Amino acid sequence: MNPAPADDERERIYPAQYFAAAASHPKGLRERLRRWRKNRLLARWCRPLGPEGRILDVGCGPGLDLQDQELPPDSYDLALLLHTLEHAADPGATLGAIGAVLRPGGRAVIVLNNLASPSFRAFQGRHWGGYDLPRQRRLFTPEALRRLAQRSSLELISLSTLASGGTWVRSVRRLLQDWSAPAWFVRRFGHRSLLAAAGFGALDAVHQLRGRGALLVAIVRRPEVHG
Hints:
Blueprint: H1 10-13, H2 20-23, H3 29-46, E1 55-57, E2 76-82, H4 91-101, E3 102-113, H5 118-123, H6 142-151, E4 155-162, H7 165-178, H8 183-186, H9 194-209, E5 215-221
Parallel strand pairs: 1-2, 2-3
Antiparallel strand pairs: 3-5, 4-5
Helix pairs in contact: 7-9
């Protein structure tokens, strides 16, 4: 994003109602499915940790700069950066800070919107559901994420994609709103539209099989200490 928002604008661009729509329906079926899917992914990533494993969840709201935090070094087995690096003022510095707090052999899971996905190509200029402006500072292709990981002190273990019907649903809703479509039709592509999410989820699952899902997933590791 150019120009990027200044640090003193955090309270304005991350208002109290940020993500309020999801929080206001915690018991809805859509929210339960979202949590179930996230918990399945977390279980897969956390399975090797054991009962004593420590996890650091790095959010993308105010206070993202880890260099300002007093986190103990060499203390965590797993770090989660779910839609975080897109918001970081300096993604390289953020990964460096992650490497400092991970134990040797510890891993970080990075999830981002995929700038090389079919959903971006279909809606890119204005309506793509991966945009989160003005909070987002940059977007990533797989190759850009690979280069960033390689420049850090962390080893890139894997780089893959993940299906997301929600990206398509948001894209269609933004397109319809821009075209002044009837409100009743726009609501069919709202955040609680299970039918739309399921349909587009199946579509993006096909793209994921070809390595082109709407989300990027990178797993990086702090090198082991030998000798």
